[in-house]
Amino acid sequence: NAGVTQTPKFRVLKTGQSMTLLCAQDMNHEYMYWYRQDPGMGLRLIHYSVGEGTTAKGEVPDGYNVSRLKKQNFLLGLESAAPSQTSVYFCASSDTGSGTEAFFGQGTRLTVV
Amino acid sequence: TQLLEQSPQFLSIQEGENLTVYCNSSSVFSSLQWYRQEPGEGPVLLVTVVTGGEVKKLKRLTFQFGDARKDSSLHITAAQPGDTGLYLCAGQTDSWGKFQFGAGTQVVVTP
């Protein structure tokens, strides 16, 4: 009963380094999302996908790229990390349509020094 | 600028007291959801409301969706320490299902 799994759970990067966060869901959901959560800011949408092979920009997409090559996986990439990208990152998935529930992973705490 | 404004930002009460958290917007939502998040975890859905004026009850929690589908409230009766957490509202403005979240209300219930 895995649901949404994020890896890694913690990471420290130096400014300028790159990394990829992996999100995997086993619920056959069409929609997947990447959010960042910062104190006092709530969850802000970075990118999302409405199906395999599709991606779209959210509220704060700059500095991030995503890919959805397989329906169950949604990857978030940071090409050149900056201290402003220090945050907790959450992946979520949902079935299609309005009123559906979003299922979240446990988050990845990323620190860029 | 947050699409959804939540108030208050922080609420500290004693066990047994009642509390109300608000979620307001100038936008109309096709559905609105409330989530609770505990430290080190992702948010977990509490309820979804879709009809203007709708009231839903979940044990000691009462959720209301405004008639115009622009605002919502969460009322907790006789709060318990287990109710401690970050309460987030999330709205969907189109049929695609994309969620937009408020900044959250941190609720602390002390014994």
Give the SSE layout:
The complex is a heterodimer of chains A (113) and B (111).
Chain A: E1 4-7, E2 10-13, E3 19-25, E4 31-38, E5 42-49, E6 56-57, E7 64-67, E8 73-78, E9 87-94, E10 102-104, E11 108-112
Parallel strand pairs in A: 2-11
Antiparallel strand pairs in A: 1-3, 3-8, 4-5, 4-9, 5-6, 7-8, 9-10, 9-11
Chain B: E1 5-7, E2 10-14, E3 19-24, E4 31-37, E5 44-49, E6 55-58, E7 61-65, E8 71-76, E9 85-92, E10 99-101, E11 105-110
Parallel strand pairs in B: 2-11
Antiparallel strand pairs in B: 1-3, 3-8, 4-5, 4-9, 6-7, 7-8, 9-10, 9-11
Q: Care to describe what's here?
A:
The complex is a heterodimer of chains A (113) and B (111). Chain A is an all-beta fold. Chain A contains no helices and 11 strands. In chain A, the strands form 2 sheets. In chain A, strands 2, 4, 5, 6, 9, 10 and 11 form a 7-stranded mixed beta sheet that branches. Chain A is globular and about 40 Å long. Chain A starts with a strand and ends with a strand. Chain B is mainly beta and 111 residues long. Helix content of chain B is 0%, strand content 53%. Chain B has strands spanning 5-7, 10-14, 19-24, 31-37, 44-49, 55-58, 61-65, 71-76, 85-92, 99-101, 105-110. In chain B, strands 2, 4, 5, 9, 10 and 11 form a 6-stranded mixed beta sheet that branches. A 5-stranded antiparallel beta sheet of chain B has the order 1-3-8-7-6, with no helix packed on it. In chain B, a hairpin with a 6-residue loop joins strand 9 and strand 10. Chain B is globular and about 40 Å long. The N and C termini of chain B lie far apart (36 Å). The mean pLDDT of chain B is 92. The A-B interface holds A 4, 31, 33, 35, 40-45, 48, 50, 58-59, 90, 92, 94-107 and B 2, 6, 9, 30-31, 33, 35, 40-45, 48, 50, 88, 90, 92, 94-104.
